[in-house]
Amino acid sequence: MGDAASAIPALRRALASGAEGKALARLAKDPQINREMEGFAKAAAKAKDVKAALRDPKILNVLLPALGLPDAVGQPGLALRALTADPKKSDGLLARLPDSRWRAAAATLNLGERGIDALRDPKVQASLADGLRRMAWRNELEAGQPGTGDAVLFRERAATAKTAYDVLGDPVLRRVLTTALGLPQAIVVQPVETQARALTARLDLDKLQNPREVAKLAERYVVAAAGSSGGAAGAAPPLLGLFPAGGLLA
């Protein structure tokens, strides 16, 4: 496990030209990932419809991590409702969920229009396999140096956030920025509007469109993550704190 002094060098090694490609090429031969994808393909071929597929652990244990939702594997009910919801409805479930990953996942799969064929599509399965390999690589980075995996993903996603709510709706952006900016973790109990004001008081969000500023924030984060007793994993409170009492799905 790395320390604060090695945090920035570790991040820069991860971002070096060719580093990601070499890691993904190596993980393309990973037997566990390949077995998981084989199980997914067989389960998708047997499933009679999307609802049946999304109740199958062999499907969800690949689908959710590959789409950037590894923490949702234990929430099959939410997965079924969210992934089959219409991402275009402005007043639908996906619009009300504070976690923007669900809307992105639903839009990517397009299960509402394509149905079970989407999960059987070789191109979709290849994309999911790539998602699993990328997650595995980021997990390796985290194991070697806390915060590095998050920082790599943050640099990829930062420019997509135009508002404070975009940040708060993405667990990685939220985790990196609240930690890098030194915001107290107890802020999660505050109304989301209060959290948004606290974020914009510390950061001009236009800086997220500037690669140099994003790089500085990522480096600040890995140093803070390495210096914290819990590492990056303890750096952010769960997004469930954004739900009102009883939750949206109660």
Provide the structure class: mainly alpha
**Could you state the order of secondary-structure elements as H and E?**
HHHHHHHHHHHHHHHH
Provide the gyration radius in Å. Answer: 19 Å
| Overall morphology | globular
What's the CATH class of the largest domain, please?
Answer: Mainly Alpha
Let me know the largest β-sheet. Answer: none
Instruction: Please state the average pLDDT score.
Output: 90
| Count of helix runs | 16
The end-to-end span amounts to: 40 Å
Domain tally: 2
Quick one: how many beta strands? 0
How much helix is in the residues?
55-70%
- By CATH, the architecture of the largest domain is named Orthogonal Bundle
CATH homologous superfamily classification of the largest domain: AGR C 984p-like
Tell me the CATH topology of the largest domain. Answer: AGR_C_984p-like
Uncertain spans, ≥5 residues at pLDDT below 50? 229-250
Share in β-strands: under 5%
Structure description:
The structure is a single chain. With 250 residues, the protein is mostly helical. It folds into two domains: 4-140, AGR C 984p-like (AGR_C_984p-like), CATH 1.10.3700.10; 146-237, no CATH class. It is 63% helix and 0% strand. The chain contains 16 helices and no strands. Helix 5 packs across helix 11 (122-144) and helix 11 crosses helix 12. It is globular and about 50 Å long. It starts with a helix and ends in a 23-residue tail after the last helix.
